[in-house]
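Pinned message: reference record for Coenzyme A biosynthesis bifunctional protein CoaBC
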Amino acid sequence: AGGRQPAPDLAGRRVVVSAGGTREPVDPVRFLGNRSSGRQGVALAEAAAARGAQVTLVAANLETALTAPLVEAGVRVVDVGSTAELRTAVREAATAADVVVMAAAVADFRPSRTPGAKIKKTQGEPPPVIELVENPDVLAELARDRLSPGQVVVGFAAETGDAAGSVLEHGRAKARRKGADLLAVNAVGDGRGFGAVDNEVTVLDAAGDVVAEVAGSKRQVADGLWDAVTKHLSVM
Ligand code: CTP
Ligand code: CA
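Predicted structure (tokens):
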């Protein structure tokens, strides 16, 4: 209720959105995870459905309370846990999608081994060392493989400025590195981004040039991003 009534400009389009944060098992009872709330991805799925799209949400460890309204709105929700599961679900859905938006916070690393039994403390023994290996870059793979002709591939990047560069400089470098058609760069830190209500996003193209700036609620950011995406979609 409230807000603008969006045009059904995504009618007939199939879109895939990943949301949430992946969890990498350490042993049967533990995982490595992150603090992504999943709310931006949920807002993207909601906004796309409201604009007429056929939406698949690949939900990484999202609470049912967050996804149930989407199911009500006709969104297909595929629950996943680890990055490997997310990758499989996203790629499967992407084979028939016009747009894929990777809003999920994907774990960069996973434990190289996952014992089948719980890791125990042993008196007098040093703590275990968890060796990590790098996960596949799902977004970069999608940008490389182009699983469906004409598909628009979109990434998200939460950045902080540091000694090596500003938020925008880091975003630019990432946009060029990933090869996605669009990269939504979100400044985090100081209460912005992760878990916060309001958002500020700069949308870059594959060359790293700014194509849009969107601010406001996660839903407003979502609609701003879909506006940018529709400009990239070829005529049906
Ligand atoms: N991403 C992905 N697979 C990964 C890591 C990231 O698909 N293994 C996607 C995210 O879903 C997001 C985009 O890549 O859309 C940017 O994620 P980010 O963590 O900012 O980029 P990284 O390449 O992992 O770089 P960094 O070292 O800054 O974390
Ligand atoms: Ca990362």
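Pinned by admin. Summary line: The chain has six helices and twelve strands.
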